[in-house]
Amino acid sequence: MKQMHLTVNGKAVYASVEPRTHLADFLRESLNLTGTHLGCEHGVCGACTLIVDGVPVRSCITLAVACDGASVTTVEGLDHDEIAGALRAAFSREHGLQCGYCTPGMLASARDIVIRMPDATAQDIRVAMSGNLCRCTGYVGIVRAIESVISERKAKSLAPPSNPRTDVGPAGSGRAGPTAPVSAAAAPVAARAARRTEPAGAAGRVPEARRIVEPGVGAPQTTVHESFTVDHPRGEVWAFFGRLGEVATCLPGTSLLGTPTDNHIETRIRIKVGPMVSEFEGAADVVRDASSFSGVIRGTAEDARSRSSTRGEIRYALIEEQHGASTRVEVDVGFTLTGPLAQFSRSSIVHDIARRMAGAFAQNLHARLSRGRDAAGTPVAELDAGGLLVSALLSRIKRFFRGLLGR
Amino acid sequence: MKPAPFEYERPDDLDGLIALMRSEDLFVKMLAGGQSLGPMLNLRLVQPDLLVDITAIPELKRVEENSDAVVLGACVTHADIEDRRVPDATGGALPRVARAIAYRAVRNRGTLGGSLAHADPAADWVSCLAAIGAEVLILGASGRRTVPVDEFMTGVFQVALEPGELVEAVRIPRLSRGARWGFHKIARKTGEMAQAIGAVLHDMERGILRAVIGATESVPIVFSDAAALFGGNPEAGLAKAYDAGAAARALDDAGITDPVGRQLHLVALKRAINQAAQR
């Protein structure tokens, strides 16, 4: 817990907060100021927008403790504010609200426009209000309401443009001194880190047999194709693909949970993207067709830390090359990601990671096939998906093979 | 959707900050405005042991101006640049970019240093400042060093900071009066993350012609000498001399194959070039 001081709607508030509490939760849960609404809770919808040190701020992605010493105005504090009063009347008149959920955030942003942009056109207002989502009104009433307040103020010559902020740096920050001295702080932090419990589903837990979600629930969101050639006859490569554990651990960061059977495997995959670390645990079933030298691995997995899940399939086919002396391996990876990871990630980033995972998978398969059985079962280091090394290496290897095979 | 528990410290000088960054066996994250880290914490995609708030350190809000550059501390916000509370050495180029980052409520807290250190490929500053030719001033326990912005980001959410180092400031070169600048961002919705960014700087007096294809799947594609994009003859006029084939080949080299993505990148670059040509 950290001690902090805020001025909320003109009143001094002293409080002890858990550092992870964001400003909106602090206002709602500790001060009962429930006029601040939470929508998406990750900075997209604008419902939680309120005024900190005179300017609009997203209170769901602003820690309360980081605002130590700041002055906060919520919708409850705007009762006697002249501009907010004019906006309230205009919102009512122009049908600027229906359910009202977005309205406190709308008012905070609209008030800022009226103060800062006295010459704003309807288009300027739309751009400036684009960070506040409304699902009822279709925005026309909201834009009209703001326009009308701007023109009223102009008509009354109440409209000198002004900017309430003069300080440099994040609004709300820099108002208070340091927290406890470093030496005193470091010890409890270390102790707490040691206590830190493993997330549910991590090391030590014996997973129950997992059920594979039936495929065919929509097409995969992300698909990646990889192809490479190994200097081994097809029969040998086919036998290798039959050893499920060895194939699976070619996927970077993968370790086995239990002993795989011929057609079922349970694994954990660790993926690191910058500061994000995910540990997917899941199971896969395999169907092989010896007549066409192809197979399908279908599986599902969950990341207990972020409560994200994925389902997907890997299809592979082995094709003879150079009169049977070598084998081309065609791999198609398709998967769908759901939960917070999917919510956060944009498709291009997911695709880049998938491409590198598939690339590293192909590269490891190739290495393991070439080295023979000595290397079997050695888990491959996790993919640091942020790094360029793997993909750079892969392109080099690909170029090398292309050159070798004259493709 | 609440962050997993973490400890929080707010040092008020650089020595205190460096001491905290060296906390061994702890996952320590720096917090400036928190507009990128906040969502990741709320979604529990990032679970640090210790969050170090760097906004109480005066040196990190420092602003310096001299004849050939402006140095902006890491905690300078997008709104500070938009509102010109800090000096501008780019003839209005940076304030215009700042004005189109996310939303005003985000710009009031989001910082220059935080955006660079977060290294989201779709963010504006990594592409914009690479085109401007800015440098990142890095501070660590063993001293200071400088890295050009185009070498700073090394991958998705990954930068050239060693453990215990942080972004102290950004040095932005002063553009000549006649410098031409274009920046175009394509996003599905105003304020959302970019799908494609094109940027071009032609500063003839300083002999500089740079271009950037940004918001790719990974690091931006930077042409530190962009003459090849203009058939080696930019003097003929940027819009006229622009060779879309050269840009397409750069996309090939970067392994960008999705036809829609390619088209967006080429259009963004073309529009940035047209903008620069008109100035």
Which characteristics define this entry?
heterodimer; A: 407 residues; alpha+beta; Ubiquitin-like (UB roll); Alpha-D-Glucose-1,6-Bisphosphate, Chain A, domain 4; 2 domains; 8-stranded mixed sheet; 5-stranded mixed sheet; 11 helices; disordered C terminus; B: 279 residues; Uridine Diphospho-n-acetylenolpyruvylglucosamine Reductase, domain 3; Enolase-like, domain 1; 5-stranded antiparallel sheet; 4-stranded antiparallel sheet; 14 strands; globular
Topology, pairings included?
The complex is a heterodimer of chains A (407) and B (279).
Chain A: E1 2-8, E2 11-17, H1 23-30, E3 49-52, E4 55-58, E5 71-73, H2 82-93, H3 103-116, H4 122-128, H5 140-155, H6 182-195, E6 222-230, H7 234-242, H8 244-248, E7 254-256, E8 264-273, E9 276-289, E10 294-303, E11 308-321, E12 326-338, H9 340-344, H10 347-371, E13 383-384, H11 389-405
Parallel strand pairs in A: 1-5, 8-13
Antiparallel strand pairs in A: 1-2, 3-4, 3-5, 6-12, 7-8, 8-9, 9-10, 10-11, 11-12
Helix pairs in contact in A: 2-3, 2-5, 3-5, 10-11
Chain B: E1 7-9, H1 14-21, E2 28-31, H2 37-42, E3 50-53, E4 63-65, E5 69-73, H3 78-82, H4 93-99, H5 104-107, H6 112-118, H7 124-132, E6 135-140, E7 143-148, H8 149-152, E8 153-155, E9 158-159, E10 166-173, E11 180-186, E12 196-203, E13 208-214, E14 221-223, H9 238-241, H10 244-253, H11 259-278
Task: Briefly say what this structure is.
The complex is a heterodimer of chains A (407) and B (279). With 407 residues, chain A is of the alpha+beta class.
Molecular structure report:
The complex is a heterodimer of chains A (407) and B (279). Chain A has 407 residues and is an alpha+beta fold. Chain A folds into two domains: 2-155, Ubiquitin-like (UB roll) (Roll); 222-405, Alpha-D-Glucose-1,6-Bisphosphate, Chain A, domain 4, CATH 3.30.530.20. Chain A has eleven helices and 13 strands. Chain A has helices at residues 23-30, 82-93, 103-116, 122-128, 140-155, 182-195, 234-242, 244-248, 340-344, 347-371, 389-405, and strands at residues 2-8, 11-17, 49-52, 55-58, 71-73, 222-230, 254-256, 264-273, 276-289, 294-303, 308-321, 326-338, 383-384. In chain A, the strands form two sheets. In chain A, strands 6, 7, 8, 9, 10, 11, 12 and 13 form an eight-stranded mixed beta sheet that branches. Chain A has a five-stranded mixed beta sheet with strand order 2-1-5-3-4, with helices on one face. In chain A, a hairpin with a 2-residue loop joins strand 8 (264-273) and strand 9. The longest helix of chain A has 25 residues, at 347-371. Chain B is an alpha+beta fold and 279 residues long. Chain B has three domains: 7-51; 60-173, Uridine Diphospho-n-acetylenolpyruvylglucosamine Reductase, domain 3 (2-Layer Sandwich); 180-278, CO dehydrogenase flavoprotein, C-terminal domain (Enolase-like, domain 1, 2-Layer Sandwich). Chain B contains eleven helices and 14 strands. In chain B, the strands form four sheets. In chain B, strands 4-5-10-6-7 form a five-stranded antiparallel beta sheet. In chain B, a hairpin with a 2-residue loop joins strand 8 and strand 9 (158-159). The radius of gyration of chain B is 19 Å and the shape is globular. The termini of chain B are far apart. At the A-B interface, strand 4, helix 3, helix 4, helix 6 and helix 9 of A face strand 1, helix 1, helix 2, strand 3 and helix 5 of B.
